[in-house]
Amino acid sequence: MINLKKLSILFLGIFSFCFKQSYQIPRDSDAEFVKIQAIDSHVYLIEDYNYWKTNSLFYISNTNVYFFSSGWSNKSAEQILWKAKTLTFLPFRGIFLIAPDLDFSGGIQQFADEQIPIYIQKDGYNVLTSNWIKWQNEMKKKFISWKYIESIPTITGVLESKLELENQNILLFYPDKIISEGNLILYLKNEQILYAGNILNHPNEYILNLNENQKKSLLELIKKLNNLPIRYIITGKGSPIYDKNLLNIIYDFYKKY
């Protein structure tokens, strides 16, 4: 059951082929504080409070640093990169965009300016390149603070269905394009942490409006994810950290939705 008191805004899902509802009130700002904290010895949670609050993470291994979201804007990206620089002198291996949407890709110019490789899933690349100007125009119309960026920086490489890094500890895989095109799933094996951008969120805070095929695909994905040992699930929106039971909550919600 949806708590109607939380129904503060209807977010029309301009950033994805899936219509989405958000119960957050957006902030017309690209200069809000980006909160970053360690949740494991190698994993740092990012909470970007600009526009619609968005969560992500970066990973510091013994040899490299990996990013999975740029944040909403170049100012968000500046804060993320500055924090990582205060933590380590290790090389920045690259940013592997969890999804093409602006809440995860809006600040990639800052990564390009610092010569950090940018990677994205192949379907996500098509979504990003075909919608970038439209998204920029829509954000500029909605928010006075939005800094219009006309061109997409050079993408270093595109990913297919699966990528393993750091001796298979970092797993990125693409479930399919049915739920959300180009949206990857990140699983950190040793840390038992799961992150899937906006695919996995508590239903009280963020809802994907899915057709029957999309719901079926999502429910099958959750069944597979439930087979993984999981300590934490990092959501894309709202409260950022949940235990594995969030998968059951999401499954039950969309089963009835």
What is the structure about, briefly put?
The chain has 257 residues and is of the alpha/beta class. Helices cover 28% and strands 24% of the residues. It contains 6 helices and 15 strands.
Q: Would you give an account of this structure?
A:
- β14 and β15 form a beta hairpin.
- The chain has 257 residues and is α/β, with parallel strands linked by helices.
- Helix content is 28%, strand content 24%.
- The chain has a seven-stranded mixed beta sheet with strand order 2-3-4-5-6-7-8. Strands 9-10-11-12-14-15 form a six-stranded mixed beta sheet, with no helix packed on it. Strands 1-13 form a two-stranded antiparallel sheet.
- The chain has a single domain, classed as Ribonuclease Z/Hydroxyacylglutathione hydrolase-like (Metallo-beta-lactamase, Chain A, 4-Layer Sandwich).
For the structure shown, list the relevant keywords.
alpha/beta; Metallo-beta-lactamase, Chain A; 6 helices; single chain; 6-stranded mixed β-sheet; 257 residues; 15 strands
Order of helices and strands: EEEEEHEHHEHEEEEEEHEEH
* Overall residue-averaged pLDDT value: 90
Q: Output the CATH class name.
A: Alpha Beta
Radius of gyration: 17 Å
Helix content bin: 25-40%
- How does the major sheet shape up? 7 strands, mixed
Per the CATH scheme, the topology name is Metallo-beta-lactamase, Chain A
Number of helices: 6
What's the name of the CATH homologous superfamily? Ribonuclease Z/Hydroxyacylglutathione hydrolase-like
Could you tell me how far the N terminus lies from the C terminus, measured between alpha carbons in angstroms?
9 Å
Strand percent estimate: 15-25%
Widest sheet, order of strands:
2-3-4-5-6-7-8
Q: Uncertain spans, ≥5 residues at pLDDT below 50?
A: 1-19
